[in-house]
Amino acid sequence: MALKMADFKTDVHNDWCPGCGDFGIVNAIQMALAEMGVQRDKTTIFSGVGCSGKTSHFINTYGVHTLHGRVLTFAQGAKIANPEMTVVAVGGDGDGLGIGAGHFVAAGRRNVNMTYIIFDNGVYGLTKGQASPTLKLGEKTKSLPSPNTNYNVNPIGLAVASGFTFVARGYSYDVRHLKDLIIQAVKHNGLSFLDVLQPCPTYNDLNTRDWYAGTDLVDEAQKRHSRIYKLEEHGYDPAVHFNEEAEVNEKLSQSLIKSLEWGNKIPIGVFYKNEIITPYTVRLRDKIPNYLENPPAKQNIAKNGFSNADISQILDSLEV
């Protein structure tokens, strides 16, 4: 039976602020999972702490609400234990690029076949609007007593430099385009990262829906134009087609250059895609030949309430 978006909705009360970009992101995830026809009992949404942390409660699959900055560790562990599971991790920009920045970089080295989505609004929305790692230096939102004193993290650039093999950016108010990006990310054979720009109507009065729409901008013909533009509509090719150092370096360089565009022109779409690099589960299979046939999630770890592990030889060696 074909699944519909409604099949991925829950009845859990949602108390996000009206106009929050989180609504669009959750809708896009639900639409993507329905369109892909994923099995709900073989799909898990992991979330961190922050406004976005409730996402795992709002999607009708397995859900794990984890710790602040630690969502990637939980999600990677689950995927490695059960490689048949579709795993999507979500979290805020503070959660993933502040306290979780170390795990973000480490994840890129492994290339576990899963997807990580960051809800990027430039502030810590759950704790009254402090500047997050993505807020630009010198900017002052209405929740800050003075301009931001820290330089910002570039999520796209950091993901590319860390080794993520699919790196993209979406916009929460373009739900259908975001849905398509999520489908591409989930289907990608490797570690996917999706940075989603989303207005925070409560605390970020700079990067608002109107600002992204470019209501303050006019072109030479005195027509307003959006700050957002789609890479795929301008002939941009993010994919690495050949396992050659020159091409890989070229694709990495162009993605980093594009990631620096901001202000009056903000690109969304896929910045980098490389399916030539071996996923982590394949590397494990090379070390453990029966890993994919008998992964940890399928192994019996206890019988009649007692562990199957036999540590008698270890205990004997410790006798004095």
Automatic annotation (TrEMBL):
Residues 49-196 form the Thiamine pyrophosphate enzyme TPP-binding domain. One of its GO terms (biological process) is organic acid metabolic process. GO terms for molecular function: iron-sulfur cluster binding; metal ion binding; oxidoreductase activity, acting on the aldehyde or oxo group of donors, iron-sulfur protein as acceptor; thiamine pyrophosphate binding. CDD domains: TPP_OGFOR. Keywords: Iron, Iron-sulfur, Magnesium, Metal-binding, Oxidoreductase, Pyruvate, Thiamine pyrophosphate. Residues 200-284 form the Pyruvate ferredoxin oxidoreductase beta subunit C-terminal domain. It holds the Pfam family PFO_beta_C. The keyword Electron transport does not apply. Its cofactor is Mg(2+); [4Fe-4S] cluster; thiamine diphosphate. NCBIfam families: Oxoac_fdxbeta_Archa, PorB_KorB. This is Pyruvate ferredoxin/flavodoxin oxidoreductase subunit beta.
